[in-house]
């Protein structure tokens, strides 16, 4: 019989933790903050009050969110065994941060957050209208942008990194700490572990292609949808919009290998 303790942190994800704040509202609320039906945007200054207003004036549901943390949370739910999936990211020292950490742990995720002294916890307003038919998302990254590579060097986090057999990075994290991504990628390569990355969004393939391509030689498994693949192909001049052809061409890109273990 397998030892559950040995599986703790089997997969480690790094990303932008956000507290999802969901509430049923109306079209007047959407118009107040200039939101469109089923749109997903980054918060501007005019959107900042939306999170407090939703928390104070509506019946809200809180969820440990952010693309990478969501993946860890759902994967944890599938396997039914707590602490198999670990996550690192940066949150604030505030009420929303406390709720976020509580919700992540409640879901069974093994979290090791970095805590920012001044920035508030990142949040995502999930504005639900028309009896659940439409959802509009407004994300405020805030403290999530404050993750630093030094967090990886803490002894307890080195333990997590060393124990993990698989790593998962979303390309959203390219906007925050490319050096942290490279540290994890190099560790995975040197220790013959699996390094997985998600293209995450077309704009990342377009505007963050330099750090993306620095990490690409270390990638063992790459995730992406059709639109992301098409943008990647265009930016990397692969010469095709056919998803199957793009996948095959990506598989031929240079790959880092630990020759000492061959």
UniProtKB/TrEMBL annotation:
Pathway connected to this protein: Purine metabolism; AMP biosynthesis via salvage pathway; AMP from adenosine: step 1/1
CDD domains: adenosine_kinase
Catalytic activity: adenosine + ATP = AMP + ADP + H(+)
GO BP term, example: purine nucleobase metabolic process
GO cellular component: cytosol; nucleus
Extent of the signal sequence: none
Main subcellular location of this protein, as a coarse class: nucleus
Coiled-coil spans in chain: none
Free-text comment on the cofactor: Binds 3 Mg(2+) ions per subunit.
Alphabetic keyword roster: ATP-binding, Kinase, Magnesium, Nucleotide-binding, Nucleus, Purine salvage, Transferase
InterPro entries linked: Adenokinase, PfkB_dom, Ribokinase-like
Cited Gene3D superfamilies: 3.40.1190.20
Cofactor(s) annotated in UniProt: Mg(2+)
Domain Carbohydrate kinase PfkB positions: 29-246
Uppermost EC category: transferase
Domain of life: Eukaryota
PANTHER family linked to this entry: ADENOSINE KINASE
Task performed by this protein: ATP dependent phosphorylation of adenosine and other related nucleoside analogs to monophosphate derivatives.
Family that this chain belongs to: Belongs to the carbohydrate kinase PfkB family.
Subunit structure, as described in the record: Monomer.
Name used for this protein in its record: Adenosine kinase
Organism: Nephila pilipes
